[in-house]
What we know:
By secondary structure, the chain is of the alpha/beta class. The protein contains 13 helices and twelve strands. The two termini are 26 Å apart.
Amino acid sequence: MDIGIIGLPQSGKTTVFNALTRGNADTSGASGSATEMHLGVVKVPDSRLDVLSGMYNPKRVVPAEIKYWDVPGPESLAKSQGIVGKYRNILQGADAFLVVVRAFENPAVAHPMTTIDPGRDLETMLGELTFADLEVVDRAVDRLEDGMKKAKPAERPALTRQLETVRKVKAGLEDGIPLRAQQVTDSEQAILVNYQLLTGKPIIVAFNTDEDGPEPGLRDFDLEIPGMESVGEVCLSARLEAELALMPEEEAEEFRNELGLDESAMTRVIRSSYRTLGLISFLTVGPDEVRAWSVRDGLPAQEAAGTIHSDFVRGFIRAEVVPYDDLCRCGNIAQSRKEGALRSEGKTYQVRDGDVINFLVNV
């Protein structure tokens, strides 16, 4: 999973990046660091892998991973500049956006809009995504209209469908409705995939708070943004969490206990991300490898097999499935089969969180 971290100037998004990735990226803005992109890879904590590793003693244990891209934002708010430019391809390839919103008070870090207003800043940042998409669809409409004039009769029906779809989405964007909140059919979605519109991506809002300040939530603001019910949210003090992330784990845990923090920012953000994107993890086990794979909740088994290798989709025969809890109770796959806990499932079986799966394929 790839998540793009975006935010307005002085929101602390690079500090959030450091907190999530245990990184040490420069947050001062010196030497052009504010315009640099940073990449960090985080392994998703999953205690089930530790248990399964003890059962199988594999050569390696592979958790699911998240790539975080700290993408430079607009350098000035004097006019809308978009948040894309040369980093558009990174944003288009992201599975979701973590939008960092400033909720901390620090006179030493001047807010570019003078006052601290998380609701206003969130609306501004989401507006930047809309402006970026409008640029794309405006060009697409012009290109399709020009293509219609030159098209042969046999080509026009397909071009007409594309043009109608893009015009429909453009009208919604102009009304302030992000793609994720628009009603589109499957055939329309198939057309829109080619444009990789940013407002179709899931959003997780990270309120960057003071260490001991209040923790705001989306419901605290009068936001007139369609589709907000599907937006995830989390609160964290990025400055504090970035410092804790660089400490030895035992020492950091001791400090968190003193501060009344049950979990790290990384864990909270990952949980919110999985919930917002509707993701689960299925597991594979064996003497060579114990591994977690992140997929959409309810994904058919045949498609889930494709996350291991694309050839598994074509060669899928069946899936041998045992729930994690049942495997732990039985002790191994053979006993799970003997007790009837292991099931044989077909290609349409909807994968559940914690399923331990062995895919039988003909490749």
